[in-house]
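Hi L.,

You mentioned the student needs an example of a multi-chain input paired with its predicted structure. This one should do, with 827 residues in total across all chains.
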Amino acid sequence: MRSSSTAGAAADSAVAPAVEMQGITKGFGRVVACDRVELSVGRGEIHGLLGQNGAGKSTLMKILLGLVMPDAGRILVNGNPTAITDPLIAAKAGIAMVHQHFSLVPALRVWENVTLGERGRVDREQARRLVREVGERYGLEVDPDTKVADLSTGQRQRVEIIKCLRRDPALLILDEPTSMLTLAESRELFTVLRRAVQDEDKTIILISHKLDEIVHATDRVTIMRGGAVVARRETAQTDVRELAREMVGRELSKWTAATAVGTMDALVTPAAASSSSEGEVRLRITDAHANAPDGRPLLRGLSLEVRAGEILGLAGVEGNGQTAVGDLLSSLLELDRGSVEVCGGAVSAGRPGAMHAAGVGVVPEDRHVSGCVLDMSVAENLVLADLGQVSGRGFVSPRRLRAHAERLIGEFDIAVPSPDTPMRLLSGGNQQKVVLARELAAQPKVLVVAQPTRGLDVGAIEYLTERVYRAAENGIAVLLISTELEEILTLAHRVAVIHRGAVIGEMSRADVDVERLGLMMGGQAA
Amino acid sequence: MNDLELIASSAVRLSLPLAFAAAGEYVAERAGTLNISVEAMMLGGAFCAVTGASITGSASLGLLAGIAAGLLVAFVHGTFSHRLAVNTYVVGLTLNVLVLGLTSFLAESAKATGHQVDVLRIPLLADVPTLGPVLFAHRWPAFLLVGIVPLVWWLVHRSRWGLEIRASGESPQSADVSGIDVNRRRRQALLVCGLLAGLGGAYLAVGEVGSFNQDMTAGRGYIVIAAVIFGGWTLRGTLAGCLLFGATDALRLALPALGYALNPQLLISAPYLLALIAMLVFAKSRQGPAALGTPFIRGIT
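Structure written out for the whole complex:
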């Protein structure tokens, strides 16, 4: 492309993709996030990157942005090998990202945010003019003097995009850009993107798990699963059904080693066969609406029912409100609208301890943050939820504490040298056993388990799966929140799919059709 | 001078050291550090100013020594809390106690001779009745505030550096994503605070008093923090707070002399009480920087 280039080289650069990633491999500890990934994005196209959580999409993009260093592989920008070791190098190569979690400072004005991160003198007039100019060019109008805190989420995203576009990048990456937008706002966004590609010759990578977005907005699509690229398609030559199948995977029986161990099959068959609609409704959430403190909607009219003795699997792509459901049932989240009933009685959401008192046990999503206290002993962690049983007249009895702990350690087969061992020294699996033992010891009416096997080894997964299954057999209503489809399909009697803060579909285990499940997870009511 | 003039003039005089330090504390807090060690900065500044003046024989050079002391405390604080991510309150309290002990010990062991900077009377203006002596006749460093206050305002609200420290104090994660070295900006803001608080302490010692005595700042650093809170994290409000707290201090000294029986201990607590009331009033409308007092540890979130 330099002056010395021959006609052949010029032709080469004309066909060279805007970005090419070759053989990219990245592991975090034992987990392989990207496994020899090949991605080629042509100039002037909107390229979709589709996949579930943990498919490796985000890691791949972080590598492209210089935020994560790959273990192997190389990146070509416009055909030239480029070592992106630093976000600044990515910026110089014309690669910019519109972040999923906004990079805006709410207390600052729009123009201040747009100029943030640049160098040189702050020129208020010029920054304001640029906001208006870029806004007009792409149809992203926003008042430069408003404080970002006073903008709606859709408007905030406009600012985010303006902030990116004003640096005039050649390649723009959008990570789940519509997760917080209304339908109209999403449409508007895609019009803007199309205009940027057509009029400005920009290249766009759109990371999404929403199938209709991919189908309507992209030119080509790369589908990732489990850290590897599983398919590449011309968008025009595919449809949502095929994409859903590729995203979720044709064979779901790859329930790794757990099936190999053999115990799982024995469990699954009766679970799938038994119809449990006869149990009484233990947990009923009706039309729950809730917002995060910053105004982001978390739940938008979520309703579900769990009956005694059944396991309801709440499936969905991460970030669609699963955490909020877990928080709601841990009394951490207040509802703006809607109600929660446990065993027929209304429970006031958000009042500390109310859910626990009503008989809801929760094995939380992140055991380190809200499941246990790492610096306290195993025995203490085992009674955290209910000190009453080991204390009298305001004093904790060490003898009863120990006896209680020893009983549970035996019953739940927790591998620990002594009840006084600090929680921190236990393996992840044993920590999770402690949390589960504590919640089950309180004899809950409803048990909520959120991502129970995340980060655990096969043995622990098997044990916990069996425990949860047995809890349901003993008549507890179990709500299993998981982003691992295999986990849900192994355990659940019924599967509900959560999307954008609401349950968009439900089916019994026997009727599960992978394609339909994939469609629902991708936001298609099917 | 009548009584009112006397009280007004002493109120201004007592506010001046606070104003220097408060301007600095304002910068540090906007960057997200609730800098408790401002007390250590002032006390260290006071001690080093007197010692420096005693060694060099020049009160003005003493002021520079005071600034250096403030910068040193700021450097230590910044290194611990914004490089090693040690809890900023622990660092601040430790520094306060350390500097208190160190200066008391050194003041005992090495007697310094007293030096004081000169009084500057602004010609004509100082002769205006009532206002003149209150506002226009002070030790000369006091008039530095005329430049420092607008400069600090410009720095925080108009310069790129200021934009970046405000972003660091409000939303460090977003600032980081935008390519700002948050902890570096916070350390720099702390250095500005150290410079100004050191100068404030030095002004107290070689400006107003002329000598050093043990724990001579006597909690003025905490009053400075109260002033920033009282001012709702605006520079104007912060300085108004300094003046108000200076006035209560002046009243505390003057009332017994004027024959009013008012408990002086009650007046000592007045600044903190006022800060509490201000927090109550501003609880909803004017909150401090969103990330005030929380350490920033880099990581992909």
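You could point out the following to them. The mean pLDDT of chain B is 89. The beta strands of chain B are 119-121, 137-139.

Best wishes,
N.
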